[in-house]
Amino acid sequence: MKNYEFLAKAALEAVKNAYAPYSHYTVGAALLTAQGRIYTGCNIENAAYGPSVCAERTALFKAVSEGEREFEAIAVAGGKDGECVEYFMPCGVCRQVLAEFCKSDFVICAVCSGAPTKFYTLAQLLPYMFSKKSIGQ
Questions:
Q1: Do residues 28 and 79 lie in contact, with contact meaning Cβ atoms separated by under 8 Å?
Q2: pLDDT by residue (tens digit) across 63-107?
């Protein structure tokens, strides 16, 4: 497995930018493109909850809005009030959005402060993903 510790550090830094005044659960993500660029994102809450957006989608949407379409890996860190003491995994919505743009071997790095990063593929976290193939494309 490739060393993605630089990506894990970027995700932990992105946690600091999270806007989570309601849940106090702050999340950061760092997305690596196939060309080696890194896009970071954080969760952004809203009092109405529905308009809130996760860190993973923020990073992905930033990258896509800049013309990126090929991705290698994402690192995700999260925790209550910025304390990333447990491993954090993308939610189901984020997994599905990643499936729109990423191959099944796309790497997801679960980051926990002071502990080794854990690595998964998108196929492991979303084994029966709904994709372009599901609608005949």
A1: no
A2: 999 999 999 999 999 999 999 999 989 999 999 999 999 999 999
pLDDT at res. 131: 84
- Type of residue found at 57: R
Q: Which of 39, 94, 95 is nearest to 67 (CA)?
A: 39
What CA–CA distance (Å, rounded) separates 62 from 73? 15
pLDDT tier at 133, thresholds 50, 70, 90: confident
Strands (E), the chain: 25-33, 38-42, 71-80, 107-110, 118-121
Answer yes or no: CATH 3.30.70.100 is held by domain 5-135: no
Instruction: Extract the tokens encoding 44.
Output: 């952004």
Catalytic residue among 13, 56, 83, 100: 56
86 is catalytic: no
Closest CA to 12 of 86, 62, 82: 82
Q: Where are the domains of the chain?
A: 5-135
Closest CA to 30 of 62, 69, 66: 62
